[in-house]
Amino acid sequence: MHTLSAALTLLTSLALAAPAPVDVSARQVFEASFVFYGASPASYEQSFPTDDTVTAINNPLSVSSIQAIGGAVCTFFGADGSSTFIYGEQTVDVSPPQPQTSGICDSE
Asked: 3 — phi, psi (to 5°)?
């Protein structure tokens, strides 16, 4: 009976323990690179910091797809209201094609 009581006490204290705080300042911030594709062969490349800051895109090309070079979690916003989410290394279509106005990235 003493063992059961000790086990229940241990489980209760573990359940009530607060998780350790995450030190967000220790996150690795890097520049994530992307290629923005329009009508062939038009394209441009731009890098974005992975620190959750909004970065302006000042290129009038109507973008139909975005290719991530390397891994990051990003969202890009278009002039006509599109929102394109990219996770990791992939190519994602922009629908409908439109100039991109800004992007925001994180490393996680």
From this structure: -65, -40
Say if residues 61 and 96 touch (Cβ distance below 8 Å).
Answer: no
Residue closest to 107 by CA, chosen among 78, 84, 93, 87: 87
pLDDT in tens, 63-98: 999 999 978 999 999 999 999 999 999 999 999 999
Q: How far apart, in Å, do the first and last CA atoms of the chain sit?
A: 46
| 36 closest CA partner among 59, 67, 9 | 67
Buried residues in 42-74 as b, exposed as e (16+ CB within 10 A): ebeebebbbeeeeeebeeebbbbbbbbeeebbb
